[in-house]
Amino acid sequence: MSEPFSVPVTVRGYETDTQGHLNQSVYLNYAEHARWSLLRAAGIRQADLVSRGVGPVALETTIRYRRELLAGDEVEVSCAFEWGEGKTFRIRQTVRKADGTVAAEIEAVGGLMDLTARRLVADPRQRFKELATDPALLDA
User: What is 5-129's CATH topology?
Assistant: First the structure.
């Protein structure tokens, strides 16, 4: 099995809280950055989704904080889609320090919304596959 897609991020000082750790809300930004980076790498741009009348939506997100991150820490944020049979999918992500230590695990449930009907599409995997130039990156 190959390594999941990941992007590097450096923790910036303004992202930290009064204790000097990465603010809890910033983990969501890092996760979102990795998701959009994966979609772009697979050949899907936001404009492509909008032109097809669909957009990804977050339905649930869980973050497990494992180790603190401090300003200047270099991390890799992974991203892997897991497809089921229904209208939703899971995204599993890990924020890992340069030394391999897991700083956080993020698990999300998402869907792909029809922007006109305001309902989830029946087969998001197929829709992403149709839009992607490299659907293998999405395991679609």
Answer: Thiol Ester Dehydrase; Chain A (3.10.129)
